[in-house]
Amino acid sequence: MLKQVPVAEYNPFELIRTNSIGAQNVIEASLGTGVRHIIALSTDKAAAPINLYGATKLCSDKLFTAANNIRGARDLRVAVVRYSNVMGGRGSVIPCFLERRDTLVLPITDPRMARFNISLHQGVDRVLWALENVRGGGVFLSKIPSYCIMDLGTAIGPDCEHPVAGVRPRETMHEAMISASDGLNTVDLGRYFAILPMAARYGRRHYCEKSQAEPVVAGFAYNSGANPD
């Protein structure tokens, strides 16, 4: 998977070949080799894409969830797990802040910016849960906390200056995991939300009856800026 937003804007077809066409290659290989489970990893940027990276991952999500429609009699279950920033992972701002705090200057993109955040262990746990529990189809995401970027900068460098660097091109102020449009097909599983496929054989009511889930409230959306946790 390619995930660098600026690289995607500069060389778009490489992202399309890797994230979208590559997803279909995995599906076709799985159909022909007896693979039983596929859990694809998604990103918050696929929820309401404003950049090419998000658009290619949204396409990937659609391909993987729709793979359940063409599995035939195969014992194959395909689902998507969506999560956001992994604490200290590649692309995380935390290592950058830790390296630069001795300079007493930690630039902040925007004091209002908020991000979801999980540990690597939590991310692995969500994938293992999906392998054991999904029946095929849908995008699954757990309820996770978010933080304000200014609070993070203050926690790591309380004595540092925090000049505002500005938001990068195509960067979002808050991370959306479930858009208001997807909220129409979303159910609450307790620790998790599930966005059901639009082309599912059965509707949301049937899914709730079979899975002990509850439909979310009207107008529901899930983003880091309005996250209660």
Summarize, please.
With 229 residues, this protein is of the alpha/beta class. Helices cover 37% and strands 18% of the residues.
Oligomer designation: single chain
Distance between the termini: 29 Å
Tell me, rounded to a whole number, the average pLDDT.
89
Under CATH, the homologous superfamily of the domain at 5-84 and 117-143 and 177-223 reads NAD(P)-binding Rossmann-like Domain
Number of helices: 8
Catalogue the unreliable spans.
none
Strand order of the largest sheet: 1-2-5-9-8-10
* Class of secondary structure makeup: alpha/beta
Number of E-type strands? 11
Please report the first level of CATH classification, the CATH class of the domain at 5-84 and 117-143 and 177-223: Alpha Beta
Order of helices and strands: HHEHEEHEHEEHEHEEHEE
Helical fraction: 25-40%
In what range is the share of β-strand residues?
15-25%
Radius of gyration: 19 Å
What is the element layout, followed by pairings?
Layout: H1 5-10, H2 12-33, E1 37-43, H3 52-66, E2 77-83, E3 85-86, H4 93-100, E4 114-118, H5 120-133, E5 139-142, E6 146-148, H6 149-156, E7 176-178, H7 180-183, E8 186-188, E9 192-195, H8 204-211, E10 214-215, E11 222-223
Parallel strand pairs: 1-2, 2-5, 3-4
Antiparallel strand pairs: 4-6, 5-9, 7-11, 8-9, 8-10
